[in-house]
Amino acid sequence: MNLQPVYTALFKLKTVSPTVLTVVGIAGVVTATVMACRATLKVKDVIEEANLSLDIVEEDKQLTTSKGGYVFSQSEISRQKAKVILHTAWDLTVLYGPAVVVGVVSIGAIAGGHGILLKRNAALAGALTLTEKAFDNYRKAVAKEIGEVREKEIRYDTTEDRGDTVAVKNIAEIDPSKRRPYARMFEHGNPNWERNSDYNHMFLTAQQEYANQKFQRQGWLLLNDVLHALGFEKTSTGAVVGWAKGHGDDFVDFGVYELEASPEDHLNASEQTYLLDFNVAGVVYTMIGEDT
What we know:
With about 290 residues, the protein is mainly alpha-helical. It has two domains: about 5-120, no CATH class; about 180-285, no CATH class. About 60% of the residues lie in helices and about 10% in strands. The protein contains seven helices and eight strands, in the order H-H-H-H-E-E-E-H-E-H-E-E-E-E-H. It has helices at about 5-15, 15-60, 75-145, 150-155, 195-220, 225-230, 285, and strands at about 160, 165-170, 185, 220, 240-245, 255-260, 275, 280-285. The strands form three sheets. It has a three-stranded antiparallel β-sheet, with no helix packed on it. The longest helix has about 70 residues, at about 75-145. It is elongated and about 115 Å long. The two termini are about 55 Å apart. The model has no long low-confidence stretch (mean pLDDT about 80).
């Protein structure tokens, strides 16, 4: 008997379990609300019955014998009132109990789905950090062997083989997929870019120094903080990755790489394009508070 389809189905169910739990939980909360509303419509009858029973107890309290004494003692009256109150409490429990149970189970389902997602996100963040660390170590080893300049040329695919010579590619031909997802082109179109290479160098250097000062002061820094300061749009990835004390290089490096213009570009030094490859340490919120 082939049980593979069963195991596959179970695995798929486990994969979507957070979504299933959340949907079930939301549906359960809605159901509990409806049940509570219906129960509320019957509360009036329960309260009226309780008030009527208490009135009877009060009337019994006033009954006296022919000799002028009371028929019921004070302790008996108190016991009768307690019985009425307990009976009313039980009736209310019967009315609202199912709604409360459904609500508690539904909230538990939502919390369970959220907990599974948190664990998965933590695992993914850990895997991402390990991958980044492994890549950085490999890149540094390669750069030590063949030189940083040549390593960058290979990593960013900025050169091409033209027979006996290696020529610089046209900047427009550089494949964006060769860059890491955090890398950005600082070029014409950026509000902070100028047709002056000295100014661009000074701007990038100043922003990197400011980022390092902020990083040292806070102990952490998000990539979005740097992107915003440089004039780039913030990203969803930049909202979680960045730098944290005791992790990675322990300093902010923009990885500034000047892309030389090929003769076909007809660009001069004042129109230089810069590739920025930030040395982020990983997912910041998983690193803050860890022992270093």
